[in-house]
């Protein structure tokens, strides 16, 4: 295993492990994750002991558990199945990502906040829309959508992220939300196959998911299969992911090459690590 810095600017806190051999990866199959609150003592522990943060977005408040507290519950658990979680393997080697094992959803990445600010400040119409929070992690973008009157599907690679973080956050904001949301874990290709007969989405929101260029065809497949013809995709990302090689420009080139969508930069920052938001719609 080689360990690379995920982003040069964030090098002290963000690491990714990649093996030299990129083929023969066993990507996890998609499953629909269902809520099992009463049985699970870890979930009870999260509700009893994790700090609750509040994100104020204009007149909407989003509440969410501190992911570091959830991770600490995992770290100190004597439950064997918790010790074996994929996120714990990454945690032991101080990695934020381990390709095809753990894809980073336990941490809230900064472009999530860029996209939330953009949606609120630009007054992107959300009410009544059907949205997909793709690679959702803690699910803050989906929570903004729920609070704004959307129906929402949450997708994350790792089942433990959905079960312990995303669903807990959804429940924390409103018990009723859990009933009208769907949650899917597993790889994007498998997710597309599993859900392609479901209703398509008005919006697909995705933050910090383009770091691995070998997954661009999967992302494109999700977009092409699950977006309504007049739907819109917003991709929030850093301009370049040091050590892993993905970048906004590589992703834009991929979109152009496939010739299905058109994309434009609708937001970029002016300080710190360069970050952007792409707005993508079908080309025709
Ligand atoms: C760096 S995390 C970003 C999490 C969250 N969007 C944020 O901004 O805080 C990348 C996310 O993309 C998802 N992801 C990455 N590769 C994936 C794949 N091949 N299939 C499914 N999900 C994937 C992971 O579940 C993970 O939550």
TrEMBL record:
Key words of the record: Cytoplasm, Methyltransferase, Nucleus, S-adenosyl-L-methionine, Transferase
Protein name: protein-histidine N-methyltransferase
Superkingdom of source: Eukaryota
Primary enzyme class: transferase
Native source species: Rhynchophorus ferrugineus (Red palm weevil)
Disordered: annotated segments: 1-20
Family assignment from sequence similarity: Belongs to the methyltransferase superfamily. METTL18 family.
Record SUPFAM superfamilies: S-adenosyl-L-methionine-dependent methyltransferases
Main location, first listed in the record: cytoplasm
Residue spans of biased composition, Basic and acidic residues class: 9-20
Cellular compartment(s): Cytoplasm; Nucleus
Any one Gene Ontology molecular-function term assigned to this protein's record: protein-L-histidine N-tele-methyltransferase activity
One annotated GO biological process: methylation
